[in-house]
Amino acid sequence: MKAETPTLHAVLLAGGHSRRMGKNKAALLYQGQTQLARAITLLQDLDIPTSLSLRPGQTVPEAVQMYHIQLIHDLDQYQDIGPLGGILSAFTANPGRSLLVVACDLPFLDNQTLQHLIQNRVPEKLAVAYRSTHDRLPEPLCAIWEPHGEDFIRQKLAENIRCPRKILIQGDTHLLELPSPEALDNINTPEEYTEALERISTRSR
Predict the structure, then answer these.
(1) With 100 labelled, which of 12, 175, 176, 203 sits at a CA distance of 20 to 30 A?
(2) Structural domains in the chain?
(3) What tens digit of pLDDT does each residue of 190-201 get?
């Protein structure tokens, strides 16, 4: 008898310190909308439950309150380990569910890219992820992580491997090609933000 496919739950990671940007990346404006609001709307349009992942003590943006979204703060044992802490804390908050993990600094991410990822799930694998168009390595922060892989993730953390990308490389990951090459271009510095605004402006003309 075939095992039932786990329910999918979206998790938006917004707990970073934005040190290279110098200000909160989630509050950056793109065509009059904050990146955080844009990302939440994109995920909720998929019609699946969505959570916002934050670091302990992080101030919750006022705009989030209108979305009636679940908040997940990194658990004490997962503090200061970056995105992996958000992923593991989300598994704890949503036991038995598959996690559609998305970073909040992807201004070019679109519904088509997310739908393609969901349609190509392989629940028996550790995860399904896209290959980066820049280095061909797995993109861990727009990926679906399956709940049976949680023990594997914890094992890697015990080995002091905190990089989600390295975990995908070492695990049984199903890799896809991006339908839109720029969809997962992330924004980390003021220079990249300026460039992103120019690209968006050019496309909208």
Answers:
(1) 203
(2) 8-204 (3.90.550.10)
(3) 999 999 999 988
